[in-house]
Inverse folding.
């Protein structure tokens, strides 16, 4: 469904953020994209949505295909119309608008009738948003903002939903609720999901397939279960080593040397 | 007392003109972040175009208004396409410099096409004098006041309730997020310029009907800057109200203190106000994200 091959992305024509990345999302699957800070995950999602240009980012090489469309050649609004919807890192709600205005913006390309129906669906999914419908989005709590951001994306009726760190800064109960929603959308709504996460164990728990990025490259990919079982991943992303305890800094540096070999 | 009331009334009339131009100014600033220093000149160009349509086609006033609206929208779109769109991605400062160049170009262009002389704009809004208690207004002046009310109401309803109006506010708050919702952001910029040209152009027609169409009309645009700053640059309705306030203060200071104050009183007011409220009287304070 989504097929990236050998993608290279630069900012300001000088900073290479993504280098030779290939990644697939099959219809109906959940794909986890993991990696530490600055690995290039958000950059990759922005390239898929074709919203790199306001930040002077550019796809230098490679192809990004969604079904039969070349994503480099179609504008961001057309990409949304074709069914890829992106929940950006940090929610990025319209801060001075009400919750309901934010949600209605998600249905910008839909008819009035579709918008009404989808609004009810989102309120059923997140009853908390219905209670807060007239609240100013900028004053919502972090969890409410994440629900509003996901709700807003659902208003566009995505076929491929891309979520950039939905668990960031949320309490564990809220994270559980968000992840249950993601799984339900995938299983019941047949929605394909590309999930960017720092929280690797959680993401690999729900995903079918996983990719791990380091410094702009994919260093490991495979079925989520295999990745979760990989010793290196266990050590450095799932937070426990063979002895079951967190690794200290010295061993992380040792890993960095190994990582070059891994890639 | 009668003098006072009449000064307030004539202040509100000229303030309506300032206010409408300030609304236009604020719409462009709010949606695209550009300070359009050519708004007064755009107003003048629309007024001249409307004058030519009125004199050459002998259109009745009720027909002239919609035709002027169409012409103004076209002028706004063309100016945005030719001067602003190629600048996208450039620093805002450069774009503002382009609008200053545009202002001077339009002034010369108008003199080249229509000549340096003023001409009366005869429109059929003449109904003679209207007395409201001790206040006496010409029907043309009343038209300016009504236009201000109509424009304010239309702008409020547009940004509050229409889908594209809400999308314009959204784009102003977060352009990338708006792109991710499927908003074609370039069309939003073009639309903002079109709306601003229509709104300010109608003010230009109202002004020309009151006085004359003349090549120094752009000067009214200067008074709209203090109006917009006073009301809060990102608040179209606040900017409109700022125009009324500046108009009344200008009329009162000229009536009671003396000639020459009219032009500068507005600027004196904003200096004082901005010391107290840096984001204007009605502007939105930056909201801290939680
Ligand atoms: N607008 C920009 N201009 C220049 N460089 C950028 C820009 N945005 C990101 N980068 C750089 O590109 C690299 C990848 O950034 P990106 O935001 O994609 O990382 P990430 O994997 O999403 O990290 P995180 O987990 O911290 O969100 C980083 O080195 C970053 O400094
Ligand atoms: Mg990121």
């Amino acid at each position: 469904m989504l097929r990236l091959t050998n993608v290279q992305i630069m900012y300001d024509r000088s900073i290479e953020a993504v280098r030779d990345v290939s990644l697939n999302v099959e219809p109906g699957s959940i794909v986890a994209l993991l990696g530490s800070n600055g690995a290039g995950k958000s950059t990759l999602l922005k390239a898929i949505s074709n919203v790199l240009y306001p930040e002077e980012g550019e796809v230098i090489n490679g192809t990004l295909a969604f079904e039969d469309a070349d994503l480099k050649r179609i504008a961001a609004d057309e990409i949304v119309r074709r069914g890829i919807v992106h929940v950006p890192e940090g929610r990025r709600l319209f801060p001075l608008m009400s919750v309901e205005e934010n949600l209605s913006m998600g249905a910008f390309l839909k008819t009035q009738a579709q918008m009404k129906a989808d609004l009810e669906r989102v309120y059923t999914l997140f009853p908390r948003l219905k209670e807060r419908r007239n609240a100013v989005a900028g004053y919502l709590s972090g969890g409410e903002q994440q629900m509003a951001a996901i709700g807003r994306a659902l208003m566009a009726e995505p076929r491929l939903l891309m979520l950039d760190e939905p668990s960031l800064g949320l309490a564990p109960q809220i994270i559980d609720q968000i992840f249950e929603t993601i799984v339900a959308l995938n299983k019941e709504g047949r929605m394909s999901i590309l999930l960017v996460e720092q929280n690797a164990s959680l993401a690999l728990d729900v995903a079918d397939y996983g990719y791990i990025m380091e410094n702009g490259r994919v260093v490991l990919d495979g079925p989520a279960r295999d990745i979760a079982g990989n010793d290196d991943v266990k050590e450095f992303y799932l937070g426990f080593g063979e002895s079951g305890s967190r690794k200290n800094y010295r061993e992380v540096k040792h890993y960095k040397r190994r990582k070059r070999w891994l890639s | 007392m009668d003098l006072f009331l009449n000064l307030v009334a004539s202040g509100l009339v000229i303030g309506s003109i300032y206010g409408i131009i300030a609304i236009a100014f604020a719409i462009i600033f709010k949606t695209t972040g550009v300070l359009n220093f050519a708004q007064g000149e755009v107003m003048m160009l629309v007024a001249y175009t409307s004058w030519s349509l009125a004199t050459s086609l002998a259109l009745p006033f009720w027909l002239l208004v919609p035709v002027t609206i169409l012409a103004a929208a076209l002028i706004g779109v063309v100016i945005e396409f030719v001067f602003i769109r190629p600048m996208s991605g450039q620093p805002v400062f450069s774009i503002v410099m382009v609008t200053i160049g545009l202002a001077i170009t339009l002034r010369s262009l108008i003199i080249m096409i229509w000549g340096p002389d003023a001409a009366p704009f005869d429109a059929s809004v003449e109904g003679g004098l209207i007395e409201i208690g001790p206040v006496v207004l010409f029907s043309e002046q009343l038209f300016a006041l009504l236009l201000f009310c109509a424009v304010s109401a239309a702008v409020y309803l547009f940004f509050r309730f229409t889908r594209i109006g809400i999308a314009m506010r959204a784009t102003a708050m977060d352009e990338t997020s708006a792109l991710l919702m499927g908003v074609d952001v370039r069309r939003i910029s073009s639309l903002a310029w079109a709306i601003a040209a229509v709104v300010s152009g109608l003010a230009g027609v109202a002004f020309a009907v009151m006085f004359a169409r003349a090549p120094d009309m752009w000067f009214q645009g200067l008074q709209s800057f203090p109006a917009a700053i006073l009301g809060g640059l990102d608040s179209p309705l606040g900017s409109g109200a700022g125009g009324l306030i500046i108009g009344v203060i200008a009329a009162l200071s000229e009536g009671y203190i003396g000639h020459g104050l009219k032009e500068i009183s507005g600027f004196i007011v904003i200096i004082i106000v901005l010391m107290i409220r840096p984001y204007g009287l009605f502007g939105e304070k930056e909201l801290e994200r939680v």
Observations:
- The two ends of chain A are 26 Å apart (CA to CA).
- Chain A has eleven helices and ten strands.
- Residues A 41-42, 89, 164 surround magnesium ion (ligand 2) (CB under 6 Å).
